[in-house]
């Protein structure tokens, strides 16, 4: 049984949510006392992890006992933000999406119970719901097969684990948000995209929705052409702090005309929304345009998820000057360019 396919888009799956009893393992933990890992499951878990697909748990179970069993199987560290308790599966799935800060339409649920699958499909038709009997074929399904596996992909789980450590440190911190950010020793890097960056740039284009100015996705080949074009500027941004690297988290594509530069695409990973760095890349492009003596315009294509990016443009002083159907053309007079936050070191080159 496969449900939820009709309601979701064609984008990649970012997180696979596993049920436990008779799905990840054979047996019911609280009834049988002893359960066995289902054949092939550990390999599927590892394959998904290597591809940069996050994984979590949604299970009606006793939390400590379930976690202990996952540790016995050597699988505990693969699962982020597990929801183990007595809530409905739809509530658990929504909680996972919120905790990981990803769209619920990028989740897949694996469960052996038709009722649970149908309950989630009814509440969240965007979620891909798969019967536990389909686990073996998951690695071959296109929706679980990214075109490229980058270094950022391979390290995605560890990046999220670093994020959990940051969140825990922030909860324990007694000062203001800016005071806490100052303790992170953050470095934001901006550079022209090199060949090694292009696969991650494509991945960013495909995966990022909320902080994508147009929703347009670019292929590796298109990005390679832009990176080599004298009429374009393709910039990538990275972020790291004392807890580790966030990887490549930003992308900007500028079309450089003689009198007007056009920001064709600006995107930022949702993972850094709370780090106060959302405008750093935009202000860098504004500064480059000002120094080149040209006007700067930006294309913005609104959708139901990227309003935050529109607010970012407006906060930076961009005003709408033209509409081309649904496409809005924004322009800055370059009179208000913000310096980076005091708690952030910015490196360009």
TrEMBL record:
<dbReference type="InterPro" id="IPR016181">
    <property type="entry name" value="Acyl_CoA_acyltransferase"/>
</dbReference>
<dbReference type="GO" id="GO:0016747">
    <property type="term" value="F:acyltransferase activity, transferring groups other than amino-acyl groups"/>
</dbReference>
<dbReference type="InterPro" id="IPR010033">
    <property type="entry name" value="HAD_SF_ppase_IIIC"/>
</dbReference>
<dbReference type="InterPro" id="IPR036412">
    <property type="entry name" value="HAD-like_sf"/>
</dbReference>
<dbReference type="InterPro" id="IPR023214">
    <property type="entry name" value="HAD_sf"/>
</dbReference>
<dbReference type="InterPro" id="IPR000182">
    <property type="entry name" value="GNAT_dom"/>
</dbReference>
<protein>
    <submittedName>
        <fullName>FkbH domain-containing protein</fullName>
    </submittedName>
</protein>
<dbReference type="InterPro" id="IPR010037">
    <property type="entry name" value="FkbH_domain"/>
</dbReference>
<feature type="domain" description="N-acetyltransferase">
    <location>
        <begin position="188"/>
        <end position="335"/>
    </location>
</feature>
């Amino acid at each position: 049984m496969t449900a939820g396919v009709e309601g979701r888009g064609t984008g990649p799956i970012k997180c696979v949510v596993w049920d436990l009893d008779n799905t990840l393992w054979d047996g019911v933990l609280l009834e049988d006392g002893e359960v066995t890992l289902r054949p092939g499951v550990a390999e599927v878990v590892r394959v998904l992890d290597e591809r940069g697909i996050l994984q979590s748990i949604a299970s009606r179970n006793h939390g400590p006992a379930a976690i202990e069993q996952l540790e016995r199987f050597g699988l505990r560290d693969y699962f982020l933000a597990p929801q183990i308790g007595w809530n409905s599966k739809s509530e658990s799935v929504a909680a996972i999406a919120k905790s990981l800060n990803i769209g619920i339409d990028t989740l897949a649920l694996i469960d052996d119970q038709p009722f649970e699958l149908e309950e989630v499909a009814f509440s969240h038709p965007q979620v891909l719901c798969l019967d536990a009997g389909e686990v073996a074929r998951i690695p071959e399904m296109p929706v679980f097969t990214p075109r490229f596996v980058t270094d950022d992909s391979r390290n995605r789980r560890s990046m999220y684990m670093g994020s959990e450590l940051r969140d825990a440190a922030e909860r324990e911190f007694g000062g203001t948000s800016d005071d806490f950010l100052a303790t992170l020793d953050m470095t934001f890097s901006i550079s022209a995209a090199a060949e090694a960056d292009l696969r991650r740039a494509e991945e960013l284009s495909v995966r990022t929705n909320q902080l994508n100015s147009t929703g347009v996705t670019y292929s590796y080949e298109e990005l390679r052409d832009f990176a080599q074009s004298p009429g374009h500027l393709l910039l990538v941004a990275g972020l790291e702090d004392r807890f580790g690297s966030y990887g490549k988290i930003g992308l900007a594509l500028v079309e450089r005309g003689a009198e007007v530069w056009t920001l064709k695409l600006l995107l930022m990973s949702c993972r850094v929304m709370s780090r106060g760095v959302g405008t750093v890349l935009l202000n860098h492009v504004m500064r480059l345009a000002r120094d080149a003596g040209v006007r700067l315009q930006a294309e913005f294509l609104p959708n139901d998820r990227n309003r935050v990016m529109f607010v970012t443009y407006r906060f930076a002083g961009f005003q709408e000057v033209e509409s081309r159907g649904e496409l809005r053309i924004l322009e800055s007079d370059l009179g208000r360019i913000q310096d980076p936050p005091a708690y952030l070191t910015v490196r360009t080159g």
